[in-house]
Amino acid sequence: MSNMLVFRYIRDAFTDPPDIPELTLAQWRALGRQVPLLYAMLVSNSLIVAWTHFSVAPIELTLYVPVILTVLCVVRTGMWWRNRDLAISADKARRSLMTMIWVSTAMAIGFAAWSLSLFPYGDAYQQSQIAFYMGITTIGCMFCLMHVRAAALMVGICVLVPFTIFFAASGQATFVAIAINMVMVIVALLIILLNNNNDFAALVSSRNAVAQRQVETQRLLDENHRLANLDSLTGLPNRRSFDRHLAAALREADLRNGAVAVGRLDFDGFKSVNQIFGQLTGDRVLIEAARRIESLRRPDTVVARLDSNSFALIVQGPVDDAFMARCGETLCDAMRQPFDMPSGPIRLSASAGFAASRPGDSAHSLYDRADYATSAAKREARGRAVVFSERHASEITRVRRMEHLLHTARLEDEIYILVQPQFDVTLGATTGFEVLARWRSPVLGEVSPGEFIPMAERTGQISKITRIVLRQALALGALLPPRLRLSVNLSAHDIGSPTAIEQIVALVGSHGKSCRVDFEITETAVMRDLDQANQSLLALLGLGARIALDDFGTGHSSLTHVQKLPLHRIKIDRSFVMEVTSDPASRAIVKTMVDLCRNLGISCVFEGIETEEQLEALVSLGGRIMQGYLFGRPMLPEDMDEYLAREASLQRLETRAVS
Ligand code: C2E
Ligand code: CA
Ligand code: CA
Question: Coiled-coil ranges per the record (predicted)?
Fold first, then answer.
């Protein structure tokens, strides 16, 4: 067993250089630094010995051999010197170390043989010098070769063995003693060298591990940076990166007294792409859109993806209104080109908004203006580009002021209701009224619900307005003949909030009498959270109320919603009514919707009838319940009596005419 260990120890000692590339390279570099020292010491020590023996030994030994050995040493030093700064491969380093092991062995034998051959010529002093020279030079060489274990070992053995035999055999007690000294020192040295060699290997491997950890850490940092700043779908900078770029671009523009433009590009109705064609196709469209924008941008323009289907640009350099408008139109044109998908081409439009920076602008204020221009484009020029102008600035000021006034308004006093009749053409009578909110502000006067309702939705006051309108509607309902119902509009916020619904239920419940109020909801409200919408509607149905789906045909118009929700009626949007006399497609859609409602057993109300022609067309298509200026404009509740009385007298006249 111990033999085995010794054998393995010796084998390990000689398997040098080891097959670890980093260690081999480290050994090669360390040795390279010591090689000149090694040969310089070897040559000078040898020349001194040659010189002291010059007069006593033959010239072959004191001149020729030392010269040959010196030349060999100089050549070897030259070779190492030439390679010292080269970045060599681990393989080449390994070969070079192997050569060094064999060269060291050969030289050790050569120098040992030369020194011992000089021994017989000298006197006792010179012989002692030989012994000293051999011992000390071997130790020196082994020291210089310490990073290459096998080379140091070979040198030690190749000198020590002949040296010990030679001096032990001399019979001279002093030389035998020197031989023993030499053996002891070299053995000690070998042990130290072997340990040192292991420490060196451990050092290199730990340095290596540290370096590898550093590389890995850097890779993780790069990856983190990429994830934090790039959008993973399109590879474009993300919002965070956009914000940083914009802040930097503004600082830079400030320094050169220039301007920066921000553009936003938003697809119109992108949600339906995901719904109809699936998320994967939606993603492909976005990737292609990103590619198109990228291909159009100037080198110094930054393009980013802000969120699902909205992109943003930072345009540097001179930016005037005409330039921004051109940029915007080019982008919108590019988005209008069909997107070729495996399932077929998809046609889309995108609206863009641009704004240029003004002195003192922050990234936030500039972005807000571009954002406003985009929403203005969506409202007023869908699929086109809008550049932020003074008109928009005054609009914003007006809206802010209005928001402030709405916020500080005494809504209970300032909100009042109007009602608009819903007429059943088959019965020839009004069957109900839609309740419409109005705001009379002491400062602004009458404000249209088209303005203050979306504002109240934004500022979180809508539920309060709903309750005020509902309270007035409940009070009014109590005074009306039982055949008439009132329908109150609910906002998406009401449907989406369990608290708001609870408050509505409590309000209706507190009124006591049987509920004569119905509710109108929009598809957008339902879309947000179908489950919550369903629960809200069930709670309202529990009150005896009925539910109408408002503005049908303008939103997503999903049949699934119509079938899944507990609806009593659908209100067909005014846009279809407007075109029913002129557009055959609208007629066909109206017909389909009438049939659909009949099949589902729900009623269908047409909104916004203004002319006899529209009425006739709708009636011929099967329409029954009508609402619009032709029958009555929204009126004050106090005018209802007069309206109903007029209707009754008309009915009497008609009955009389018929009979
Ligand atoms: P809506 O629910 O679609 O209401 C119908 C709108 O069309 C009303 O506008 C009505 O005055 C108008 N209208 C009715 N007949 C005709 C017609 O023949 N021709 C034309 N051109 N228009 C007609 P209004 O009162 O300005 O309300 C606008 C929108 O404001 C409503 O649209 C509704 O979405 C919202 N709104 C009104 N009151 C309330 C409310 O109390 N709560 C909530 N959440 N929204 C309300
Ligand atoms: Ca309505
Ligand atoms: Ca409507």
Answer: none
- CATH class, 402-658 region: alpha beta
At residue 264 the predicted structure's pLDDT band, cuts being 50, 70 and 90, is very high
**Does residue 607 have an active-site annotation?**
yes
Q: What are all long-range contacts of 183-186, with beta carbons under 8 Å and residues at least 24 apart?
A: 185/135, 185/139, 186/138, 186/139, 186/142, 186/156, 186/160
Catalytic residue among 607, 613, 647, 654: 607
Q: Quick one: pLDDT band at residue 1, thresholds 50, 70, 90?
A: very low
Cis peptide before 58 (omega within 30 of 0): no
Residues lining ligand 1, judged by CB closer than 6 Å? 420, 436-437, 448-450, 453, 466, 469, 489-491, 550-551, 607-610, 628-629, 634
Q: Determine whether 85 is exposed, middle or buried from the number of CB atoms within 10 Å of its CB (0-12, 13-18, 19+).
A: exposed
44's CB contacts (< 8 A; 6+ apart) are: none
Cα separation, 95 vs 27, in Å, equals 12
- Contact indicator for 349, 273 with CB cutoff of 8 Å: no
Q: Which of 258, 259, 305 is nearest to 283 (CA)?
A: 305
| Helices marked H in 511-553 | 523-528, 530-541
408-438: per-residue pLDDT in tens? 999 999 999 999 999 999 999 999 999 999 9
Whether the Cβ atoms of residue 632 and residue 419 lie closer than 8 Å to each other: no
Mutate which of 462, 471, 489 for ligand 1 pocket (most atoms within 8 A of beta carbon): 489
d(CA 193, CA 149): 7
Strand 517-521 and strand 445-447: the pairing is unpaired
239-388 CATH: 3.30.70.270
Rg for the chain (alpha carbons), in Å? 48
Mutate to test the pocket of ligand 1, among 436, 469, 573, 611 (most ligand atoms within 8 A of CB): 436
> Which residue ranges make up each domain of the chain?
2-212, 239-388, 402-658
**First-last CA distance in the chain:** 130
**Alpha-carbon dihedral angle through residues 76, 78, 84, 89, given to the nearest 10 degrees:** -50
Structure tokens given for 582: 């002129």
Q: State how far the Cα of 182 lies from the Cα of 132, in Å rounded to an integer.
A: 9
Token reading at 298: 């100037």
